[in-house]
């Protein structure tokens, strides 16, 4: 899976963090596993950072976010959310265009006039892999398991 070098963020004005740090894990292997999960999420569906950590049985939301910040443009970063259905900080407007185009279910407060004032309806939009997709995720996490994590 292609990824940015450490220090390259999603936006030119947002410096990216260093590599994803999961004790004992190769940062590149962890990043590859996270990006594999993100690439499997279908249009109109989402996962939270914590969901991805749970699927990989490694790391946590912060490590997933750090790995995802290294993704290249082809990775659907907007499909990975904070817990509560909120898009990544500072990217709500960019993400909203993707959600609207994909028909992702949103919850907008009554009377809201600001386009960044919304959250994704996790009850309707949360995706979980099929058994076949889980096998792909197991393959993606194999290097992490071989490292004894």
Describe this entry's structure for a reader.
With 149 residues, the protein is mainly α. Strands 1-2 form a two-stranded parallel sheet. A two-stranded antiparallel ribbon has the order 3-4. Helix 1 crosses helix 2 and helix 1 packs antiparallel against helix 6. The longest helix has 16 residues. The chain is elongated, with a radius of gyration of 15 Å.
Name the features.
41% helix; two-stranded parallel sheet; mainly alpha; 149 residues; two-stranded antiparallel sheet; 4 strands; single chain; elongated
Write the layout of secondary structure elements.
Layout: H1 27-40, E1 47-48, H2 49-56, H3 61-68, E2 80-81, H4 92-102, E3 106-107, E4 119-120, H5 122-125, H6 131-146
Parallel strand pairs: 1-2
Antiparallel strand pairs: 3-4
Helix pairs in contact: 1-2, 1-3, 1-6, 2-3
Uncertain residue segments: 2-18
DSSP summary: helix tally: 6
Give the strand tally. 4
Strand order of the largest sheet: 1-2
- Overall pLDDT metric: 83
Biggest sheet record: 2 strands, parallel
Q: What is the percentage of strand-forming residues? A: 5-15%
Write the H/E string, N to C.
Answer: HEHHEHEEHH
Radius of gyration, CA atoms, in whole angstroms: 15 Å
End-to-end separation: 21 Å
